[in-house]
Amino acid sequence: MRPNRFTLRRTPAAVAAVALTAALAVAAPAAQAAGTATPAAAAVAAPDIPLANVKAHLTQFQSIATANGGNRAHGRPGYKASVDYVKAKLDAAGYTTTLQQFTSGGATGYNLIADWPGGDPDKVLMAGAHLDSVTSGAGINDNGSGSAGVLETALAVSRAQYQPDKHLRFAWWGAEELGLVGSRHYVNNLPAAERSKLTGYLNFDMIGSPNAGYFVYDDDPVIEQTFKSYFASLSIPTEIETEGDGRSDHAPFKSAGVPVGGLFSGAGYTKTAAQAQKWGGTAGQTFDRCYHSSCDNTSNINDTALDRNSDAAAHAVWTLSSGTGEPPTGEGVFSNTTDVAIPDGGAAVTSSIAVTGRTGNAPAALQVGVDIKHTWRGDLVVDLVAPDGTAYRLKNSSSGDSADNVVTTYTVNASSEVANGAWKLRVQDTAQQDTGYIDSWKLTF
Ligand code: TRP
Ligand code: ZN
Ligand code: CA
Question: Residue 196 CB: number of other CB atoms within 10 A?
């Protein structure tokens, strides 16, 4: 036992207050039936991005290359023609577009910037892709894929007339293949006051690799989690991108202190047997055997990867541009706000959340937000119990931890659990004298 705790921490008033709180906690429920989950953050779900539309842009990029000496490289006519194509689509959709010129290697280069009118001007979310190819080919996977995915996401914003809390800005960079020239030019020429308004930059460079992997940049944790939760909700395993951090247009933003993230389906690295096992495709072959070569044409695309990554891009743009910057809401937040009293040194109690409308398994990084009011949290043992009864220990008791309350978010690998069903938070108070109650908890998918 802990002999000094009462004298250390408790005044009679505090005891009375705790007793009153506990009494209210027991008496209060009823307003909300136990087990009802209220979708919290009412974020609008992103639309599905039509693969056919993304591929139609790739067909246009291919035609542009074919008509212009076989490439869309910086300083060549195929680059400017690509810019004109993307710009015309955005102008017609209601974007405010800007061409930013720069010079590299004696040739004029262009960044295309497209602002979606509205949103908080002091909170800007950006998404971008490099639009130039190398000189040796049409650059359909590198990086027609990212360019088309971002373009179609921007057009989906317009079709939905989406009005997010944040201001949305899309970008297509020039001269990436010469060393991130365009994106660096943009960041270097952005006044510090404008730079500080950027809440995030999402990069899409090579998202349709023919022997695809599903790689998420390991950078800003909220952006990373937003992508990971999306793929987890579809039961698609992801890995951290390791084929060269800093090798694309997110690098200048990251150097300037902007939170960054992105997706990548692989370039010159070889797919391992384990990767082929989980993603399909061919082990022992590179992710993109046409990387930076003449066969990077419209045949050099994995439609499934292009489709999923484009949908993930839209998901991230939708999710990260609305709400307060809370943990990513993914497809939804389910919560139970009914108080449940926790008996002092007694039996475990549970609070239940019914998850519905999900397909497949729970995320590999399920966020479990817990708000337990208690006057000595070391008393508490807390578990998350999956619908099939599997318990995940969130917190053990530790008699010396005298602090109040458990208000935190736990991350649980719940990828082996079916998402739909009754999830429970189970709390047991293992020692006497201090008491409390489950105030609320939530699951973020
Ligand atoms: N355009 C990039 C390049 O040629 C492709 C690339 C390689 C990449 N490794 C990457 C893009 C990692 C993003 C992340 O260098
Ligand atoms: Zn590239
Ligand atoms: Ca106790």
Answer: 14
